[in-house]
Amino acid sequence: MRRSWWFILLWLLSLAFALFSAERNSGIAWSVAYLMTGLVVISFLWSWFNLRWVRIGRYTRSRRSQVGRVAEEQFEVINSGRLPKLWLEVRDFSDLPQHDASRVLNSIGPHRRRRWLARTYCLRRGRYRLGPITLTSSDPLGLFPRQRHLPATSTLIVYPATLELPGFVPPTGMLPGGEAMRRRTHYVTTNVSSVRDYVPGDSFNRIHWRSTARTGRLMVKEFELDPTADVWIVLDLDQTVHTGSAAWTAPVPELSSAAVRQERLALQLPSSSMEYAVTAAASLARHFLLEDRSVGFIAHGAHRELIQADRGERQLTKILETLAVVEPTGRIPFARVLTSEMEHLPRHTTLLAISPATDRTWVAALRDIRRRGVHNLAVLLAANSFGDGPPYRETLAELLISGIPTHLLSYGQDISTALSQRVTVLD
User: Fold this and answer.
1) Are 224 and 180 in contact (CB under 8 A)?
2) What is the arithmetic mean of pLDDT over 203-227?
3) Are residues 240 and 389 in the same domain?
4) Does one domain contain both 37 and 63?
5) How many whole angstroms separate alpha carbon 123 and alpha carbon 66?
6) What is the distance between the alpha carbons of residues 396 and 360, in angstroms, rounded to a whole number?
7) Which of 21, 274, 307, 400 could form a disulfide with 29 if both were Cys (CB 3.0 to 4.6 A apart)?
8) Which residue blocks in 21-71 are alpha helix, DSSP H?
């Protein structure tokens, strides 16, 4: 039974004793009854007022973070009333792993505020909920604990890590393009395709002054992409080929101020082929986009993920947001994905295939795609290094015999190093 019910029971007993006590003891009995009544009333009112005129705010520096980085949230509790708050418990119900934002605050004076900073080392990619919050308080005797639920929530998306790839060199012939791509773009290039009427938001450096003078109204230039081949990243999400588990608890580094100021803390990934594949895809996408290449992304999970090839930082954000939430839930073999999706790619396009599959049919699909003039490169994940998976050596041998540039990625291996060293011989 809670402490409050015991106290209420004692209070009722004191009232009963005062009512039925002898006249000579009635003074003492009624004094005790009055004392117990006062304590009950004061405690109840104290508890009720303790959660009144309390405001709480949470401020997130950024709604985006990355695996291996630190997410920061600042909390502020304001007592806008005239009475002090003896204690307040702020309990946060966010589902971000290792996010410890709950606090117990003591002695918040009238018109005072209390702030604290919650730093969280991001272990896993994904989309997470921040909040809700529950405020708990009570009277000094702890007789009447009360709660106040704050249902407001927000979202934090944790991108996969992107690593520098200084040693990654695409095979000869993959960098140059050929013909200008007959596709309109919002970038200013050297290839002008047509002119059109000016619309609000068009940059003034796109105005075609000769057409403007001839027509008497503002005309702007339409551009086509530079003659550089697209890069397509195809990620295997077949649930039958991925091994390992992303459910783990890594040792969280000390989040001192000096560590937080670093660009990135030491990257740690679980023993999961899916997490390594996603990190490799994100790093390759960033690498090519920084080189001003046009990058697209395809994956078949629970549903088809398609991001049309484009350039710039906005394209990287689209790809990272997709990679943050994809899971190995697909049921289509990787060979079928490659055959169906790459059928209409133009010549000189670059295809990057990332898979732990040991079924060699996807290697045959890459050979067929190459015959159509599409350059390809494979990132093979060693499935048996992440858990109970089949051996990969025969698939690796097939890739090497087919002359397909291949990078091998195993658990515990530095991804940046693996993507910088191409496999040339079978050990």
Assistant:
1) yes
2) 80
3) yes
4) no
5) 9
6) 9
7) 21
8) 26-50
